[in-house]
Design goal:
The structure is a single chain. The protein is built from 3 helices and no strands. The termini are far apart. The radius of gyration is 26 Å and the shape is rod-shaped.
Length: 73
């Protein structure tokens, strides 16, 4: 009786997520692929910012004399 009352209720967040995303395979696969791509971009961005912050002044772009041609006058 308790489980019947729980089923007839509005449901929780996980049940709503299941109904929205995981019930149909194409929607679930699309969700997983999109999540992987967005997660990869977020991790790449975070690692790049951390690398730049830890290596300020040591990178090629930070050294002003590199890559310049001598001025002939």
């Amino acid at each position: 009786m308790e489980s019947a009352a729980r089923r007839s209720g509005g449901g929780g967040v996980l049940e709503g997520f299941y109904r929205l995303v995981m019930r149909r395979t194409p929607v679930y696969v699309t969700f997983v692929i999109a999540g992987a791509l967005l997660g990869e971009r977020a991790v790449d961005y975070g690692v790049k910012k951390l690398w730049e912050r830890n290596n300020v002044g040591k990178r090629y772009e930070d050294i002003s004399v590199l890559g310049q041609r001598p001025v002939d006058e």
